[in-house]
């Protein structure tokens, strides 16, 4: 998978809002779509980009 600017925009929205649901809402995506795309991004770069937690994503 080729890294796209749109993928980085997902991470930026999650970081700025502090919540995956808020980022998904802002970007007009479903939660499952956002998580799938972040998972694909993580696989392509071979690194965990999103620390998932009960309260917020980091």
From TrEMBL:
GO molecular function, one term: DNA-binding transcription factor activity
Domain HTH lysR-type: 3-58
Recorded coiled-coil stretches: none
Pfam family, one: HTH_1
Family annotation (Gene3D superfamilies): Winged helix-like DNA-binding domain superfamily/Winged helix DNA-binding domain
Domain of life, source organism: Bacteria
Name of the protein in question: HTH lysR-type domain-containing protein
Organism field: Archangium gephyra
